[in-house]
Amino acid sequence: TTDATNRKFTNVAFQGPGHVMTYDSSGTGWVVRMTLNGADGAAAWSGSFLPSATSAISFLQDGKSYQLMYDKVSGKVRSYRLNLF
Q1: Half-sphere exposure (CA, 13 Å, Cβ side) for 10?
Q2: Quick one: 13 exposed, middle or buried, by C-beta within 10 A (0-12, 13-18, 19+)?
Q3: Distance separating alpha carbons of residues 34 and 20, to the nearest angstrom
Q4: For residue 10, which of 65, 54, 49, 56 has the smallest C-alpha distance?
Q5: Which one, of 81, 17, 28, 23, lies nearest residue 55 by Cα?
Q6: Residue 3 confidence (pLDDT)
Q7: Phi-psi region of 72 (alpha: psi -120 to 50; beta: other; left: phi over 0)
Q8: SS3 for 7?
Q9: Looking at residue 79, what is its pLDDT?
Q10: What is the per-residue pLDDT for 48?
Q11: How would you write the pLDDT of the chain (85 residues) with one tens digit per residue?
Q12: What is the strand order of the sheet 40-48 is part of?
C-alpha cells in the first residue's frame, strides 16, 4: 500500500502486538507499534532501509522478525532483523 506522500506500508511479522513498517524512496523508514484499538501507537524504531525499495516482505525465523526488501530496478536485496517488543 502507498499513501499520498508516496510512503509504502507493510505488516511486520511479530509474535506480539501488531506492528507496521512504512518506508519511502529515500530509504527512511519507521516501524510503528499499533495499539489494541488499531490506532497508531509509538514508533518502535526509525532509521534507514534499502533506498528505492519497491517491495518488502516480513517473515519470522527462530521467533525473530525479519524484513526482506527488494529494489526491482537495481536488483538489490537486503534483509533486516527487527528487534521488537
Answers
A1: 18
A2: middle
A3: 7
A4: 56
A5: 23
A6: 67
A7: alpha
A8: coil
A9: 95
A10: 93
A11: 666 677 898 889 998 888 889 999 999 999 888 876 766 677 778 889 999 999 999 999 999 999 999 999 999 999 999 887 7
A12: 8-12, 19-23, 28-34, 40-48
Which amino acid does the sequence have at 6? N
* CB of 36 closer than 8 Å to CB of 29: no
Q: What are phi and psi of 22, to 5 degrees?
A: -125, 145
Question: Cell numbers of 37, please?
Answer: 484499538
Q: Is the Cα torsion angle 55, 47, 15, 68 positive or negative in sign?
A: positive
Query: What are the grid coordinates assigned to 49, written together?
Result: 532501509
